[in-house]
Amino acid sequence: MNRRAVSFLVAVAIAASFCPSPSALADEHLFGWVRGAETLPAGHADAYQFITLRTGKREGVYNGWDFDTEVEYGITDKFQVGLSIEQHYFRIRGNEELDDLHQYRFGGIELSAKYRVLSPFKDTVGLAVRLEAGYLSHDDVAGLDQEETYFDPEIIVQKNFLDDTLTFHVNGGVQFAWGKKPAEEYDSELTLHAAMGVSYRFAPNWFIGLESHIRSEFPEFDFGHHEHTVVFAGPSLHYGAEKWWATASYGYQVWGEGNDEPNIGKTFAEEARHEFRLKVGFNF
Amino acid sequence: MHPSLRFALVPAALISTPVAGHAVVYLSIEQAQQAIFPGGKATPAPVKLTAEQRKAIEAMSDVRQRDDDVRAWRMTGGGWFIVDQVIGKHEFITMALGLTADGAVKGIEIMDYRETYGGEVRNPAWRAQFTGKTKAAPLKLDHDIKNISGATLSSRHIAEAVRRLLALHDIALK
Fold this sequence. Notes:
The structure holds two protein chains of two kinds.
Chain A: H1 3-18, E1 45-55, E2 61-74, E3 79-93, E4 101-118, E5 126-138, E6 145-161, E7 166-178, E8 189-203, E9 206-219, E10 228-240, E11 244-258, E12 274-283
Chain B: H1 3-8, H2 10-14, H3 29-36, E1 42-44, E2 47-48, H4 51-61, E3 69-75, E4 80-87, E5 92-99, E6 105-112, H5 124-127, H6 152-173
């Protein structure tokens, strides 16, 4: 493992250690990017819609909209499966690196499975493992044609405090992807990703939080070949009712570094300066 | 709006059918009193806890006592009736606890419940687990109290509330 990969893991550990000690609810999303360790009860389902806006590059106009429609079903009280459809809408103009585009693109289809090993409400710490796999027909940076397939195992840790009103979450995973050409220069890529967040229920139904997510990409599964690393951080606000919930969150690119990019503490080749995400979910 | 953007939003519209949410109040205070103490008469006996009493309750029960004000009634025959609120997933759950004159649980009632899952906490069989418990009982999930899948948080908080109220009875009501 090279110095950049080690730096990524150290950054995750340091960030986790600085977060205050900290519940997600039956797969109700308290955050925009961070996941909780709970799963749906057996026989129950939920459906939700994500709308994400990634906006702001070094130059020109860049608005990348992601529309993620997902349904999940609890097979057992500890095991749930999900299916999601991803779509994009791009408005790109005046960026030297990207072609102008003002168009809809179908993103792809994703399948997921999540198993809860320990309950955050009953055990000392909540723990879940999640596996996501998908087929993506267009890339999410410029809507270019591709034939990407990927799988993405992830570990989710959650610790609750203060009668489960203060919760702390850490996620970490690795994504293995193939078929990224011609959207990317290389066919295969490994992505290390992590996220952490703290949430507090400040009034009945209302939760406020802070979250951060970090991603580091290595073409051809080679830790000696670093493409870029990016860190986003920002607030989240969640409202949960008996049958539905909504979450609004924002992430600012606090730090980034990319190959062949100016050393300005930001990376814009595949990332944007701002990320806004709205989620609305319904329980059945 | 660009025509293709409308297409992207179709799934959002499909799952955005409003779902009505409403507070379900199952029992009034009087109804809960009669359910636990049939034919009994209640005399209000509210209690204001001192800081020392709160600390003692928390030390005995290992559960946080959030409120100083205790909504208690003295029942004919020497028993106690207490109304309490516990933290649910989204909202507070209002419950009532009846204690015999010697400090054992006579019964519990769930007066309102507004959470997505776990309405089973109102099932008589689940609530009957608490009957006869005293301050010596562990009152812990998967020990002497069965968990309700999908409502672990509510089940645990109700069990902890009973443990806390038994301690409160011992310290502030006896």
